[in-house]
Amino acid sequence: MSIATSGLHHVTAIAGDPQRNVDFYLKALGLRLVKTTVNFDDPGTYHLYYGDSAGKPGSLLTFFPWRGAPLGQRGTGQATTTAFSVPESAIGWWKSHLAEAGVEVSEVVNRDDEDVLTFHDPDGLIIALVAHTQGDPREPWDHGFVPPEHAIRGLHSVTLSVDQEEATAGMLVDDLGLRQVGADSNRFRFAAGQGGAGALVDVLVTPEAPPGLVAVGTVHHVAWRAPDEETQALWRDELIDRGVTVTSILDRQYFRSIYFREPGGTLLEVATDEPGFAIDEPLLELGRALKLPPWLEPRREEIEGILPQLTLPSPVETR
């Protein structure tokens, strides 16, 4: 493969109640809601994007909140942990902060010389905070509920659970351009680009685990970065030439996407860095209003009648 990704673009998961989802990711994790839109394939459902101040690629965790949908099952063939990068000195603060918010947290463990704190969101999605030791130059969202000196910098890594690693590792290396940078028992680490936070994926081999079922509380897909549409189109052609089944290029309004599955079963996406989230509302107002793509705008009244109303908490209310 002549094209390689520079790192993670976003992770998309499935939630239950959208208001509970907003409250948790804004209040407990201190992220910014950078876009309130709908699932373009199911416009009666929100698509909520959380990230840094501008929703830069590599900072994003997004959700399809389907109220009343069944809980999923974590297992092989899916991404089972989404990890964020926090300052090296912040893990103790986060452990106390989450406990005060009523979140049950794990003991801090050390992995690859970094402290890791793991917990579940209200729907059971596994989230980890990693005290990144190599320095993370990314700026946090500094107008949220979490003080900026402790705040999340962006995605750190994702973990893919598989029943065997060879084929999955082959696609990561040969089709995405990653390289293996570590191995510890049944965990294999791969890095994109320059490596470091936002460019890592762990492949966890758990043949004893059941097959995963994607529903509430699980990851739907993991997206990797492409710099532009031209590169994405060439990438798609190369993937097809290598025998990978790939979707057509889909317009997601804020980026363009192609989708395919890695051999272990996880749905992957390659998403463009541009045009970004400020194309249909000012940067200072991101996420506050429901934004629809042009082809759904004629149905706004119908869609707004279906979607539950959201109340966005503001840190100003608590100061």
UniProtKB/TrEMBL annotation:
Matches recorded under SUPFAM superfamilies: Glyoxalase/Bleomycin resistance protein/Dihydroxybiphenyl dioxygenase
Domain of life (superkingdom): Bacteria
Domain VOC: 7-132, 154-273
Name of a matching Pfam family: Glyoxalase
Name this protein carries in UniProt: Glyoxalase family protein
Species: Actinocrispum wychmicini
